[in-house]
Design goal:
single chain, 113 residues, mainly beta, Immunoglobulin-like, six-stranded mixed β-sheet, 58% strand
Length: 113
């Protein structure tokens, strides 16, 4: 998670994530989602509200490679803080290419001043 899309706060293997970054209501929330394997779809949720691709803009995608073989992706999203109507948290749902298996991230919360 980032407030500027450059300086990233990284969360690994924690049940509950709380970002140290404090956002203002005029900020955008930048998130970076790393997929190993092949994901064909992901949906970003704020509580039960899902953000569409006009709200959660995928502004960049990079490839994770092993040799010359693509083994995953890193996708970068930008969401305006004002779009978070169900509290200040998000969760990512991914669907794998194989049989549409659902993969959920843990919830990440953040503060707004």
């Amino acid at each position: 998670m980032s407030s500027d899309g450059i300086n990233w706060e990284i969360f690994h293997n924690q049940v509950i994530y709380r970002a140290n970054t404090i956002f203002s209501t005029d900020d955008d929330v930048y998130i970076r989602v790393r997929y190993t394997g092949y994901s064909n779809t992901n949906i970003i949720y704020n509580g039960t509200q899902s953000f569409n691709n006009k709200t959660a803009v995928n502004y960049n995608t990079t490839y994770i490679t092993s040799g010359n073989i693509v083994v995953g992706f890193v996708r970068y999203y930008k969401i305006p803080v004002s779009a978070f109507t169900g509290g200040y948290s998000l969760k990512v749902l991914g669907f794998s290419v194989n049989a549409g298996q659902q993969i959920w991230s843990n919830t990440v919360s953040f503060s707004v001043e």
